[in-house]
Amino acid sequence: MNKIKKSLLLASLLVILTPLTTVSARTVNDSYNYTLPGFNGTVTTSIQTQKKTYSGSNGLIEVRKSTNKQKYDARMLDEKGRAGSWVRQVPLNSARDLPANIRHYGGLYSKLQLSSNWNATKNQTSGIWRSN
Predict the structure, then answer these.
(1) Is 105 helix (H, G, I), strand (E, B) or coil?
(2) 28-130 CATH pick, 2.60.120.510, 2.30.40.10, 3.30.1050.10, 1.10.220.10
(3) What CA–CA distance (Å, rounded) separates 59 from 99?
């Protein structure tokens, strides 16, 4: 009888605690809204907005507004300045993976960097992103 009670108690704890650990491991979306300068100009988000949950995992960017409908490049940087690869020509109304650097470790803060094309004009852009 004691073994059955212990087994039921353990199973109940696992059912209760599993959703708590799953929820805490998620990275939330942050919004961005920037005026991106033309002629290969760049802007970077604040370093304190995204804390990486999983080491080496790709992030995500979704472009929701681009006043001139221009495409631009995006990448993730960690708090130590290590950059992931550029995602080139991100268009309006699309979501793209942001490749992580192999040394983007969980627990470090990340930021988003955007870059216009060499022949682009000034552009207001907004959307969401996350570092995962």
Answers:
(1) coil
(2) 2.60.120.510
(3) 6
The encoded tokens of residue 30 equal 């942050």
CA distances from 17 to 23, 37, 54, 107 (A): 10, 48, 20, 22
pTM: predicted TM-score of the whole model, two decimal places: 0.78
pLDDT per residue over 31-70, tens digit each? Answer: 999 999 999 999 999 877 799 999 999 999 999 999 988 9
Per the structure block, which two tokens stand in for 53? 């949950």
Residue 91 scores a pLDDT above 60: yes
Check residue 83 and report its DSSP letter: B
Q: Nearest CA to 62 among 118, 114, 106?
A: 114
In terms of Cα–Cα distance, which of 120, 132, 19 is closest to 76? 132
Sorted by where each begins, the domain ranges of the chain are: 28-130
Vertex 59: Cα angle to 96 and 27 (nearest 5) = 125
Q: Encoding tokens for residue 116?
A: 């216009």
Round to whole Å and give the CA distance between 114 and 106. Answer: 22
